[in-house]
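HUMAN: You are asked to prepare a plain-text protein record giving the amino acid sequence and the backbone structure tokens, both parts labelled.

ASSISTANT:
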Amino acid sequence: MEIYQGIILGIVQGLTEFLPVSSSGHLVLGQIYFNITEFQLIFDISVHMGTLAAVLVVYFSDIKLMVVSVLGFLASLADPGSSTHLIKTDKNLKLVAFIILGSVPTALIGLVLKRYEQFLFTSDTLVGCMLILTGTILWISRRYYHNETGEGKFDTKRAVFIGIVQGLAVIPGISRSGSTIVAGMVAGLDRNTAAKFSFLLSVPAILGAQILGVKDAMETGFTINLAIIYGTITSFIVGLIALKLLLNVVHRGKFHLFAPYCWLAGTLVLLSKIL
């Protein structure tokens, strides 16, 4: 992989990880276009860690509050009455619980789909079909912009439902951010709460997937080169900008405007297989 290819794919990852157009789908297409096979796994891991760092930066204050709440809960375990009170009243502790609950179905579905990764991550036809599906999901979101159910109404069923959708978004071409935010809105959450939970839920999902990826990479052997380093840095910087842009778009209720791009991209991919 050349340095310029790493930078281009880093830009692609940074933009598409957060904009609801499927980062994995675009990376698959980019690697097919550049005919890249070497360092593919470790490159994917590295650029995903770059965009994960962007999430940690944007949501640092929320993550800090959750960590403080968890530590406070652990310290209160010696007093059952105090720990029970925290469970009932601490909204940050509840958010941690919902993230854990949502991560369980994501992990189970991800492990099942991992058996088919050789097909999932090499088929541009699949990517094209799933991009069209993603566009349809985004277009449906127009009906749910006016939901007013916030964090106070969040519950276990909603967390698990969004976690299931996130697990299915492992399939390249299905946007993780797009599908999970829309899932939250369909479940009755307001768009800002849905977006916040979507990105916080992505942290354990991305970390878990990359840990498994590192294990596989160590078994097959890998090399860190300049293309991977530059790609990772690029994915972080571009991802930071893209995440803030998406949150602005969600806040303004313009999420569905990404649908035509997904339809067009998916259609072009499929046409390229026919022509």
